[in-house]
Design goal:
The protein starts with 7 loop residues before the first helix and ends with a strand. The protein has a domain of 158 residues: Cupredoxins -  blue copper proteins (Immunoglobulin-like, Sandwich). It has 6 helices and 12 strands. The strands form 3 sheets. A 5-stranded mixed sheet has the order 3-2-1-5-8. It has a 5-stranded mixed sheet with strand order 4-10-9-6-7. The chain has a two-stranded antiparallel ribbon with strand order 11-12. β11 and β12 form a beta hairpin. It is of the alpha+beta class. The radius of gyration is 25 Å and the shape is elongated. α2 packs antiparallel against α3.
Length: 284
């Protein structure tokens, strides 16, 4: 079953969203990745070339004793200083990105709570609530407060921005923005239990008008799945695993006039590297 994860199609499908940024934050991460990749590739080419030259030029020839070289302080300083300078430069660039894209604590536009094993999405200003489905207006930067109701989760939408850990009792903040309309897949990138593979969600970026039409229909708390007791929340596995609650959560939150349909999930622990799960969508 786990061999399917290393299938070439699985790897390509999993990497595609990361290489296709749809927001300024994701594009900045993409550019940083390319910069680090090019530097590492150059280092690999230089080292591999030196190894090949050494193998060819200084190969042993019978009983002839090769010229002995005990090194020099100058060469050692150069070889030590160069990697240190590269690491310092990459650290500076990475730190600059982290500081410039820090959402900071403040009033949240969206509150996202991770549960085993589903996502609770709240819009505090509008009093709206949904599950496993985040709606955002295109072009608007939203501050999202992420927290956990049980174990550590990690919020990640590869095409829209960086990862952010969700720790119980310690809320974190992250920016969420999409520059173009569409449906973007997200997932929990921190192993959170035996049904971690179901910790999937979608972000639907739509026009401001469509967002304002959708939001009123989600007002009011509906019947959410019951929270697990704290002691049970820390349990990663059990002889009788609990049923997947994602579909029941969506069914409980499903407003009148909406139906359920399936959408593909890539790189799950299923044969063929794909499976389906239910999400709420407009009727018709």
């Amino acid at each position: 079953m786990y061999i399917e994860l290393f299938h070439p199609l699985c790897i390509v499908a999993s990497a595609a969203p990361v290489l296709d940024p749809a927001s300024k934050d994701a594009a900045a991460i993409h550019h940083l990745f390319l910069l680090v990749f090019i530097i590492c590739l150059a280092i690999l080419v230089v080292i591999a070339s030196l190894v090949l030259v050494s193998l060819k030029r200084f190969r042993a020839n019978g009983d002839m004793l090769p010229q002995q070289n005990f090194g020099s302080h100058r060469s050692e300083i150069i070889w030590a200083a160069l990697p240190v300078l590269i690491v310092i430069a990459l650290s500076f660039i990475s730190a600059k990105f982290i500081v410039s894209h820090d959402a900071g604590a403040g009033e949240a536009d969206i509150v996202l709570v991770g549960h085993q094993w589903w996502w609770e999405v709240r819009y505090p200003t509008a009093g709206a609530v949904t599950a496993d489905e985040i709606h955002i207006p295109v072009g608007r930067k939203l501050r999202v407060r992420v927290e956990s109701a049980d174990v550590i989760h990690s919020f990640w939408v590869p095409q829209l921005g960086p990862k952010m850990d969700m720790v119980r009792g310690h809320p974190n903040f992250v920016w969420l923005q999409a520059d173009q309309p569409g449906t973007y897949e997200g997932a929990c990138s921190e192993f959170c239990g035996d049904q971690h593979a179901w910790m999937r969600f979608i972000v639907i970026a739509e026009s401001e008008t469509e967002f304002k039409q959708w939001l009123p229909g989600r007002r009011g708390r509906r019947n959410l799945p019951p929270a697990r007791p704290p002691k049970q929340a820390k349990t990663f596995s059990s002889p009788n695993p609990a049923p997947i609650v994602t579909r029941s959560a969506q069914a409980a939150l499903q407003p009148p006039g909406r139906t359920s349909r399936t959408w593909p999930v890539v790189a799950s622990l299923q044969p063929g590297c794909s499976t389906t799960r239910t999400r709420i969508s407009p009727a018709g």
